């Protein structure tokens, strides 16, 4: 039951009950090092990022380094806020910290648990290097832990990067993948020296997040319902990922799935010579929406073709059918290609993949 306090104007940083629940939860599941007063509840990561883009220039930081490939929507969002961005390449261990250092920036946005979109998990050495960089340049790491709750590898998932350098990291989490994006619920874990600044900026944006949603989410955490929900959906997503990988192995043996078994999407690397945009268009003609790797690439230059394939919202049978259709689409590019085997009507959308 919500009492008078929950129905009054909420505190701008979030309901104390939720901040306390989140501090405990993030410590338990992501090993984050925080106290409730360092947690700010936001309208998803989008609002957290918007607050940070307003705060950084006040600290003399006008450029934010981004992983390349990365989230093109986020890049646009950051640039529209007036910040500059500089793309830093990602290799098999994560962001290239030498290149980051050379760029001379003092702030970077990373997805260390499951790089977006490649799915690579940042190696322990690279995590250490990144933290050393942040300490040396007195910089800031923004850790976007957008799907860190979904981990299907047999070995334990790495802790939040924030646990290595809480004074130099803003950790960002969201309910968009664990529950639904429409909730617009996220949270930041903020280093001490940024706390007042971000609160001041936030209070110019709004008067805090919806108190009833916050109360409900605190209850989900405190009663263990969130844990139970996550156990259930994790097992569902794990099965979907397995079926997807099986279908890829059978139908698209020339494709290589890179990155960790985690999150809600997979990244398929395709052999050199594949015309990625023709493949995406041919898949769409078969009612399968996949995104080409090009969409996420920032620096100019030719890279191997790839596809980002989301599997969270498709039933198992739909996944195999979608990969079958991608294979069929790819076959169109073979010399002397045979015609499409089976064109699905557009209403029979078999694949709705990640944006
Ligand atoms: C890379 C990445 N970061 C963060 C988010 C979450 O953003 P928000 O919390 O604003 O929905 C998403 C989308 O779910 C994403 O793809």
Describe the structure.
Strand 5 (107-110), helix 6 (124-136) and strand 6 (140-144) form a beta-alpha-beta unit. This protein folds into two domains: 4-223, Type I PLP-dependent aspartate aminotransferase-like (Major domain) (Aspartate Aminotransferase, domain 2); 235-352, Aspartate Aminotransferase, domain 1 (Alpha-Beta Complex), CATH 3.90.1150.10. 44% of the residues are buried. The protein has an eight-stranded mixed β-sheet with strand order 1-8-7-6-5-2-3-4, sandwiched between helices. It has a four-stranded antiparallel β-sheet with strand order 9-10-13-12, covered by helices on one side. The longest helix is centred in the last third of the chain and has 27 residues, at 225-251. The chain is α/β, with parallel strands linked by helices and 355 residues long. The two termini are 37 Å apart. It has helices at 4-7, 16-30, 44-58, 72-80, 97-103, 124-136, 192-205, 211-222, 225-251, 276-285, 316-331, and strands spanning 39-42, 63-68, 84-91, 94-95, 107-110, 140-144, 169-174, 186-189, 256-258, 265-269, 288-289, 291-292, 306-310, 351-352. It is built from eleven helices and 14 strands. Bound molecules: pyridoxal-5'-phosphate. Residues 44-46, 71, 111, 116, 144, 146, 174, 176-177, 181, 186 line the site of pyridoxal-5'-phosphate.
